[in-house]
Design goal:
Largest sheet: none
Order of helices and strands: HHH
Shape: elongated
Distance between the termini: 99 Å
Helix content: 55-70%
Structural class: mainly alpha
Radius of gyration: 29 Å
Number of strands: 0
Amino acid sequence: MKKNLTAIAALSLVFAMPAFAGPNWDVIRAAEHNASQDNQIVLPLDHGPRALSTPWVNKEIRMEMIAREQKAESVRVASHSAKHSKTRVQ
């Protein structure tokens, strides 16, 4: 009877160990990093007879957003390089 009780206690301790384990911070940080990189916009898709959003419209919206982001980035880079330019105009 003592052997059974000891075996049951040992097994319950082994099965309870994952409950005492802490969070896996490496996995959590990797997931947060991947989520921050995947900044994709989810656009609605409507298949009704009077659809306001279609795959073609969503593609156009996405292309416009990419163009705006690229334009903003180029303006930011241009203004940064103009501020920090080593050539002086006389």
